[in-house]
Amino acid sequence: MKLKYNKSGNFRIIQFTDLHLGEYPFNSHDKNTLSAIDKVVQEHMPDLLIFTGDIVYSMSNHNAPNPKESFKQFIIFAESLHIPYAVTFGNHDTEEHVSREELRTICNQFGVNAVAKKNAHIVENRESYVIELLDSMSDEVKNVFYVIDSGDYSNTEHSYYAWVLPEQISWFQKTAALYKRQNPVKNNLIFQHIPLPEYWLASQNIVDGNFNEDISMNLNWTSDPDEKNSHSLPFDNGVFSPEVNSGFFLEMLLNKEVWGMFVGHDHDNSFHGIYKGIHLVYGQSTGYNTYGSEPKGARVIDLNEPNQLIRTYPVIF
Questions:
Q1: Less CB within 10 Å around the terminal CB: N or C of the chain?
Q2: Is there a contact between 70 and 24 (Cβ–Cβ < 8 Å)?
Q3: Cβ pair 164, 150 in contact under 8 A
Q4: Distance of CA 29 to the CA centre of its chain
Q5: DSSP bridge pairs for 52
Q6: In sequence order, what E strands does the chain have?
Q7: Residue 182 pLDDT grade (very low, low, confident, very high; cuts 50, 70, 90)
Q8: For the residues of 229-250, what is the DSSP string, one character each?
Q9: Are 63 and 23 in contact (CB under 8 A)?
Q10: Which of 310, 300, 4 is nearest to 135 (CA)?
Q11: 21 bridge partner residues
């Protein structure tokens, strides 16, 4: 399935994130989530849908003992929209009862409208791949969308959440070189679930949206006294990135063709910030079956081929 700019030179992506679908048959919250997605798709007529992780719960204590069935029903729903779509995973999709490999198998089995994955790469069961957007009049690649599985938990003493792996950064460097232009234009995009540490710095230069993720609430899970001391930090809101920096943002800078990154994960952060000329953007948290004081919704990303312009804004359900 080839993705191309339309005859007017426009292409529209809608990002949905953090659906947090529970056990199937879905409860009223999950049904409302899927109904709202369907409505947004019908009203905004996108060319591509990207789901950036935490699509399903996968733990028994989240009332999700059979995430494979929940994910299968999600894919069946995505197919019913008749729009090309892409999927990556978050920290909640494979906590128990299911692996990322099993979810990918379900997607491959039922995902007729799933996008063609170019230059796919798997390390530690985390898949990265490229989506190509072609010229309206030919098969020339005009934009590249990198979809990266940012993992779940580091399971080390260094960080609670996982970081983008060195092997993934190396893959990005080598793959991006295949698409390098003579005259670099910043019009490529990256999609993943967990934000990079640089989102903290982007929070100091917000174009629009909100920076409302509550630090205290997010630290309720920890028994580490050093983490508990974070309750006394001189700010209330935070970015729940990995606590160590693996260097992916530097590679994005050196590439010179990345316009921005789109993530999810922090349900009450919806901001679009800029750091060192790169747009670091949160999706609007989508799912009703989870926490959040921010209104539920989606994020539209409009690309224009003639002017090579990119515009993004939230849509509230």
A1: N
A2: yes
A3: yes
A4: 21
A5: 88
A6: 3-4, 10-16, 48-52, 85-88, 118-123, 126-134, 141-148, 188-191, 206-208, 258-263, 272-275, 278-282, 297-304, 309-316
A7: confident
A8: GGGGSS-SB-----SS--SHHH
A9: yes
A10: 4
A11: 56
Cβ contacts of 303 within 8 Å, gap of 6 or more = 5, 10, 11, 12, 13, 133, 143, 187, 309, 310
Q: Six-digit token pair at 176?
A: 């991006």
- Contact yes or no for 272/312 (Cβ under 8 A): yes
Q: Which two tokens stand for residue 195?
A: 């934000």
Rounded distance between C-alpha atoms, residue 279 and residue 291, angstroms: 26
How many Å separate Cα 313 from the centre of its chain? 15
For the segment 110-164, what is each residue's pLDDT rounded down to a tens digit? 999 999 999 999 999 999 999 999 999 999 999 999 999 999 999 999 999 999 9
pLDDT, one tens digit per residue, over 69-100 is 999 999 999 999 999 999 999 999 999 999 99
Assigned token pair, 181: 């232009």
Q: 17 Cβ partners below 8 Å, 6+ apart?
A: 51, 52, 53, 54, 193, 263, 264, 265, 283, 284, 285, 286, 299
Predicted confidence at residue 226, as pLDDT, reads 54
What is the residue type of 281?
V
In our burial notation (b when 16+ CB lie closer than 10 A, e otherwise), range 104-128 reads: bebbeebbebbbebebebbeeebbb
Q: Does residue 28 sit in helix, strand or coil?
A: helix
